[in-house]
Amino acid sequence: MLRVMHRSAWVLLTIGALLMFLLAARYFFLDLDAAAADPDQNILRELYLQRPVGLYIHAFAIMFPLIIGPVQFFLRRLTPEARRAKYLPLHRWLGRIYVTGALIGGVAGLYLAFYAYGGFVSALGFGLLAVLLLTCTSIAYLRIRAGNEFSHKEWMTRSYALIFAAVMLRLQLAIYQGAFGIEEMAAYQATAWSSWVPNLIVAEIINIRRRQTEAPVSV
Fold first, then answer.
1. How many helices (H) and strands (E) does the chain have?
2. Which of 14, 69, 72, 199 is disulfide-compatible with 160, CB 3.0–4.6 A?
3. Is residue 218 part of a domain?
4. What angle do the packed helices 165-174 and 184-194 form, to 10 degrees?
């Protein structure tokens, strides 16, 4: 039963990551002039269209950890124990790409946060998200370099929870505005926090359960 739940969670993560991957890819084919003239594109116009380089770097870099996360979870958690060693070189190379994308995307996200649509509330939320992403990813990398696999997994869980804010942001904006009729700026200010704080709470629950079921080991 627990294995079925893990696989179901993996499927949902993968679907969300793939949809966000496609959404992020559209920025590279966006007609900036047309988007700037669209009265319904306030967030895009106010923040991103004035800083297209930052947008492109952030979107391009974050796409990689977003899509690699579910793959890493599958390789390390859902594959049979006897087959994991076979995938270890792939896991390590994907991990290097993940860390690079997360760090570059985090720096670009921190830059964009200073100009966030919604003023100080949004800027603080997205800025803290970027700082935590950089911190968690860096610690995860340093822990595996030190041979502490258990701690590495905990920090990577936190890192991906923050990466997944990209998916939750779009989903929550649609719910806040579509289902509850919340005004655009207020909805964006809310998602600056609600897109990642609950994710971190879930990550900590996962880590607590991991400590109860797995003995910390160093490799």
1. 10, 0
2. 69
3. no
4. 150
Domain of residue 116 covers 2-213
- Which three-class secondary structure state does DSSP give residue 42? helix
Residue 207 lies in a domain: yes
Whole-angstrom distance, CA of residue 28 vs CA of residue 202: 32
Q: Yes or no: say if 157 and 203 are a contact pair by the CB < 8 Å rule.
A: yes
Domain total for the chain? 1
89 domain residue, yes or no? yes
Q: At what angle do helices 197-213 and 184-194 cross, to 10 degrees?
A: 20
Q: Is the pTM of this model over 0.90?
A: no
> What residues have CB less than 8 Å from 158, skipping those under 6 apart?
132, 136, 140, 200, 203, 204, 207
Instruction: For residues 135 and 140, give the distance between their C-alpha atoms in angstroms, rounded to a whole number.
Output: 9
Q: What is the DSSP string of 52-65?
A: HHHHHHHHHHHHHH
pLDDT, one tens digit per residue, over 109-153 is 999 999 888 899 999 999 999 999 999 999 999 999 999 989 999
Taking the C-alpha atoms of residue 115 and residue 51, their distance in angstroms, rounded to an integer, is: 9
